[in-house]
Amino acid sequence: MNCLMLTAKNHSIPLSDGNRIPIIGLGTYGDPRTTPKGTARECVKLAIDVGYRQFDGALVYFNEHEVGQAIREKITDGTVRREDIFYCGKLWSTFHPPELVRPALERTLKTLQLDYVDLYIIELPMAFKPGDKFYPKDKNGKYIYHETDLCATWEALEACKDAGLTKSLGVSNFNRRQLELILNKPGLKHRPVSNQVECHPYFTQPKLLEFCRQNDIVIVGYSPLGTSRDASWVNLKCPPLLEDEVLVSIGKKYNKSPSQVALRFNVQRGVVVIPKSFNPQRITKNFQIFDFSLTDDEMELIEELNKNIRFVELLMWSDHPEYPFHDDY
Ligand code: NAP
Question: Which residues form the active site (predicted)?
């Protein structure tokens, strides 16, 4: 796939199951405590007008109803058809036991008021105590984990695809070993088409990207702009990505911002990006990445910015037996 050819109107890339994914999508996680109600809805509608066709959401973002409502409103007003939109939903860690998988997806569909999602992914490879308490803790404040059987969860997901509730299946925050667990599962019926992981110029994921390329798995890069730098969950030892001098100076050459350069870098190497913004100007700007391209030298320069430090470390779960980030990749 030559990603240099992608345009604002035509920017989807193939998935291994025959479906396609738009190479840019709008991330929809905003802190529910500080984001006014209705924001996600307005932003998704604007994004569709701007040209975004992919939306990355989750039940645990607490605004999935707004995202669904916005998509439905833009279908009703004739701007798009359902088949033009790509929605990715996520199976949360308290719903890993096979019998809870389909009800969790059905809950997402009911929240969205849509008949299917385009992609449904296991949000984390770590199971928590099953139930409606999304962050179960004991009386000492310690997270309560659950035995994790990723292959059993995957089989339940395969049944959801067969039932037409999702078009494609993927994973998120999986390391190589966890991907291999699924890929080598006896009787595997549907392969994971994507792995959503942190990916940006300060964390370029060279090894995981190569492994995924070899196995026809698309990398979807989350936090492609270097996160919101919210101290409550982001590792702030890593400097602000968008202030990087290399990104700034390359941007000047093309009259582009560091954020547009960071997004273009991933797009040009076939990594899907899902920048989040709830600001109309930034939503619009972040999509303007199809009218310039980076030279091979510039791609290499940006590649060299890799610091191999994660903004999203998930250290509060580092004692979980399936914590994914102890491994090299
Ligand atoms: P991000 O997209 O890298 O950055 C978002 C932050 O950058 C927001 O604070 C946003 O503020 C700001 N921003 C957006 N455009 C900008 C621009 N042009 N210039 C300067 N600042 C800009 O970070 P993220 O939200 O962590 O990741 C994106 C999406 O990935 C999430 O929304 C979610 O859908 C997904 N995600 C998934 C996982 C997972 O475990 N699977 C983990 C993290 C994130 P404004 O809104 O004010 O513009």
Answer: 61
Which of the 8 DSSP states describes residue 61? G
Could you tell me the two tokens for 33?
A: 């405590």
Contact status, residue 313 vs residue 325, Cβ threshold 8 Å:
yes
61 is catalytic: yes
Closest ligand 1 atom to Cα of 257: 18
Q: Give how far Cα 109 sits from Cα of 9, 19, 104, 120, 170, Å.
A: 27, 20, 9, 11, 17
Statement: residue 328 has pLDDT above 80: yes
Closest by alpha carbon to 268, among 251, 289, 244, 246? 289
- The verdict on the CB of residue 194 being under 6 Å from ligand 1 is no
Please give the backbone phi and psi of residue 8, each rounded to the nearest 5 degrees, phi first.
-60, -35
How many A from CA of 155 to the centre of ligand 1? 31
Cα distance between residue 120 and residue 251, in whole Å: 35
- pLDDT confidence of residue 288: 98
**312: Cα within 13 Å, side-chain hemisphere:** 18
Strands 86-91, 54-56: pairing is parallel
How high is the pLDDT of residue 234?
96
Q: What average pLDDT is seen over the chain?
A: 97
First to last CA, the chain: 24
Distance CA 8, CA 223 (A): 21
Residue 238 Cβ inside 6 Å of ligand 1? The answer reads no
**Atom nearest to 222 CA in ligand 1:** 30
pLDDT at position 1 is 76
**Arithmetic mean of pLDDT, 297-303:** 98
